User: Fold these one by one.
Assistant:
Number 1:
Amino acid sequence: MPSISADSYIRLSLEQLQAVRLEHLISDLDADRPSAGGEATAISGYTEWASAGAPRVSLGWDWELAPHDGALRRLGLPRGNVMLVDATGADLGPAATHAALARLVDRMDWQRTAWDDVSARHPA
């Protein structure tokens, strides 16, 4: 069973990561939204997800509302407390881990859940 290492990472193989079921914790708008002449130029925010079991895998990323189609799109790489390891248990490193987390997020159906949470926090 994975545990939290001294450096605060949970070390998982890619297969273990793919088996983790993430649940939505919170999504909200960025507090420091840029503006031009008093009007917002973009709508952006963040979303945080975590596993239910122990140790608790945590994953978060930034998003923006695409102006041309109104869809939420991930911005940048996800952040988390996971470090991927190979079959020998050696770290694959931050670049490989972040790339795998990005692929995981991009396969998730997170947009509706995130937007519903934002809408509930900021009613029209």
Number 2:
Amino acid sequence: MQSSGSDLQVYNYQLAVDSDHQVIVVVGLSNKPPDTEHLAPVTERIAANTGALPKVMSMDTGHWSEDNAIYCADLGIDAYIATGRLQQGQPPPPKRGPMPKDDDAKARMGRKLPRVQERCHPSHPYTRGLEDMTNAPIQRGHQG
């Protein structure tokens, strides 16, 4: 990669975290910038390190491709892959109603993601009370 006429050594890292146990299960480092090509190797390493494929995965927009969505679906993984940002003034995809039959994989994923965001709203039962934890002191050691 070049910046201001000089070469920069740039690396791309991938992490996979077990959300139930808050443990990093895969770390990857490469000099290949697109995240899309890293999904399959990381998923295979997750299975090798943990003995099982994940049931659910969430990934940033760099991992979005129709091939990656199909790859996860074929493995039975419920994937949540960000599809990108909305342009200024662009309306969000509809959140309710039947899924249009002619929607492509990106549109289907885009409709899936807002439902997750709704569940993450502070007033939702799963997240109610989390705002009180943001200023809580860190507790160390066994609490028994």
